[in-house]
Amino acid sequence: MSLVVAGSVAYDGVETPHGRVERMLGGAATYISLAASYFTQVRIVAVVGDDFAQDDADLLAGRNIDLEGLERVPGKTFFWEGKYTDDMNDRVTLRTDLNVFADFQPKLPESYQNARYLLLGNIQPSLQRTVLDQMKHLRLVGGDTMNFWISDFRGELLKTIKRWDFLLINDHEARLLSGENNLRKAANKILEMGPHTVVIKRGEYGAMLFRHDAYFIVPGYLLENIFDPTGAGDCFAGGFIGYLAEHGFSLEGDHISRGMLSRAVIYGSVMGSFCCERFGVDRFRTLTREEIDARFEEFRKFTSF
Amino acid sequence: MSLVVAGSVAYDGVETPHGRVERMLGGAATYISLAASYFTQVRIVAVVGDDFAQDDADLLAGRNIDLEGLERVPGKTFFWEGKYTDDMNDRVTLRTDLNVFADFQPKLPESYQNARYLLLGNIQPSLQRTVLDQMKHLRLVGGDTMNFWISDFRGELLKTIKRWDFLLINDHEARLLSGENNLRKAANKILEMGPHTVVIKRGEYGAMLFRHDAYFIVPGYLLENIFDPTGAGDCFAGGFIGYLAEHGFSLEGDHISRGMLSRAVIYGSVMGSFCCERFGVDRFRTLTREEIDARFEEFRKFTSF
Asked: B218 vs chain A: nearest CA distance in angstroms?
């Protein structure tokens, strides 16, 4: 069933210990959409400037991503530049030019409004709400956020996530949002804010899913070389909701859905791991569904006992 | 089958964000033995001074640990004092008084020498070798080490672990020993140093087991409160080898042994998690095998998909 992905489509400048790229396709909605496109029909909602390259549009269209909701306006595309630390567990933002994104008002095409699944990438909470308001027959909605919105737009954010089924968040952000250092306690507090499911991403250490009655933990995939972690969290989100949309996940039938949610976390982890194997979105130029399913089975092999 | 555990029996002074204890039973051999005692007959090799309390000897004897190899000599028992950081992922050593441990020369009682399993806690590599030399019919030997021996006694250490079946080591130490930052590469280098099995402990993030032909990863157990992480790595070691000794693990029959090794990692994780629930060895005053097996099943539940 089809999935609407809203967020940023951007150009990134990235430096990691493995090299530097001055300008390449990036943005949360890009990574989420590419990852989810291996599982389901994706419809993207975002804005780009008139500098947006046809090659980049072609890459998305080549993955069968619907670009009707990708608005093109005069001006420059959102640009972000960052540099990773040596162990790649942290990064410094060197530059953020919102450009055309500053005035973005998401308008969903008619054909998007009946989609059953919605993933809200990390943008202003009020914009996330605007997108949600335009959806008519949602079966599942969730999204991501970041420290800036948690600290400086807390009221807006709480109003927004209250209506979500799931929140995807990293460990630092979970602590910031909940005020709890212990992640189990942090998750329990977030579950009281609205979402019935919280997924905490821990980078190289894996991910955890919490619901009121159950939890699931998976370790990270052990890559020999991490070229560029940019977008890994978004690819996790894309794999997670992509798998749920592919299987028509519904909140009815709790017993079935728990197993499905666990497998969705694994597919999220798989997509995040592939993302790190090349710079930017490059891994998605060659990645196949067969490789994805093979890594899913590898997860089963190295975690079962 | 019986297990010989060699290492330190000590008194510890510990401060964590949850409180402070000026003097309590500690030492690697103590924690390893207590954890392993839930699985198999343990025989301890260590030295204590004439200040060693009868209550502490009684605690060990009460877990059916053989104390024939616990030498008592005039002087004071090894004393260690440390303080944990707020998130308890790191600690500072405030004091180390070797006391009677400075002249320790392990001598194994006759009854110990035919044991089939040997766990060498973190002591000088040359002493670890002295213990191994006295064992006559070993089926499995492994041990732990630390950054001090890796940095300052590297030659001695390499000569020692060359004869081990498995090395238990934390992630920082694995990087230091191998010179590789990536843990998969680090493990592969260590596997060339002698041991056919390397277990890398990652504290709250869990543990990984590597062999030439397979690997296994488990996330850490999510405690709501970590009172005192002292001894958690040693309890992991005790659970790991204790389970293997209980089931008569043998290196023949590789296919069977891999599953057993994975379950041993889980029992190690279970014992490490219980250790953190109280100060020092206190959790072992009440812990039952039923609680241990229940937590093992909980691991299965929150990791399977």
From this structure: 6
Residue in A202, A266, A302 closest to B217 by CB? A302
Q: Given CB atoms, is A222 within the 8 Å cutoff of chain B?
A: yes
Closest residue to B185, CB basis, from A205, A224, A302: A224
Domain containing residue A123 = 3-303
Partner-chain contact B302 A215, CB within 8 Å: yes
Q: What is the pLDDT of residues B192-220, one digit of tens each?
A: 999 999 999 999 999 999 999 899 999 99
Residue B253 has pLDDT above 80, yes or no: no
> For position A267, which CATH number holds?
3.40.1190.20
Instruction: Return the pLDDT at B85.
Output: 87
Q: Give per-residue pLDDT as tens, A83-112.
A: 998 878 788 999 999 999 999 999 999 999
Q: Is A178 helix (H, G, I), strand (E, B) or coil?
A: helix
A window 116-175, beta carbon within 8 A of B: none
Domain count, chain A: 1
- Residue B127, H or E segment: helix B125-133
Contacts 24+ apart (CB under 8 A), B122-125: B122/B7, B122/B8, B122/B28, B122/B146, B122/B149, B123/B6, B123/B7, B123/B8, B123/B28, B124/B149, B124/B153, B124/B156, B125/B149, B125/B153, B125/B156, B125/B157, B125/B159, B125/B160, B125/B161
- Cα dihedral B291→A196→A169→A181 (10° resolution): -50
Predicted TM-score (pTM) of the model is 0.94
Residue A208 with chain B: CB contacts under 8 Å = 219, 222
